[in-house]
Write a structure and sequence with these properties.
The chain has 111 residues and is mostly beta strands. It is built from one helix and eight strands, in the order βαβββββββ. The radius of gyration is 14 Å and the shape is globular. It has one helix spanning 19-22; strands spanning 3-6, 28-29, 33-38, 41-50, 54-59, 68-73, 79-89, 92-99. The protein has a six-stranded antiparallel beta barrel.
Length: 111
């Protein structure tokens, strides 16, 4: 069973059929090493996709929604972020990270 935890209260969650309308920024597939640094230490992982506003990252352990962190992607400057949702998997977690720095530069290394 997959369990997903989120900061969004159930009354405000968007039904799956409306996900396409919810996204404000185009996502692109991105497979880069990433390090999520929290006050408790660093968590390594891999990006699954990225947008101007955040990342979807797979990690071996779990972080709680609301955790603030610094995101380090290979070849890019660090960015501040927050875990907004966590999907627990049998061998780790997939987490949604939103950027907090308010810049509009693309995430990940430049092409």
């Amino acid at each position: 069973m997959i369990r997903r935890r989120t900061l969004t209260p159930p009354s405000l969650q968007v039904p799956p059929e409306l996900f396409a309308n919810r996204r404000r920024n185009a996502r692109r597939e991105l497979s880069e090493r990433v390090r999520l640094e929290t006050v408790d230490g660093a968590v390594p992982g891999w990006t699954l996709n990225a947008s101007v506003g955040g990342l979807r990252v797979v990690i071996e352990n779990s972080l709680d929604p609301g955790t603030e962190l610094t995101v380090w992607i290979d070849g890019a400057a660090p960015r501040s972020g927050r875990i907004v949702w966590v999907q627990d998997e049998p061998d780790g977690s997939i987490v949604g990270v939103c950027f907090l720095d308010g810049t509009s530069r693309p995430s990940g290394p430049s092409a």
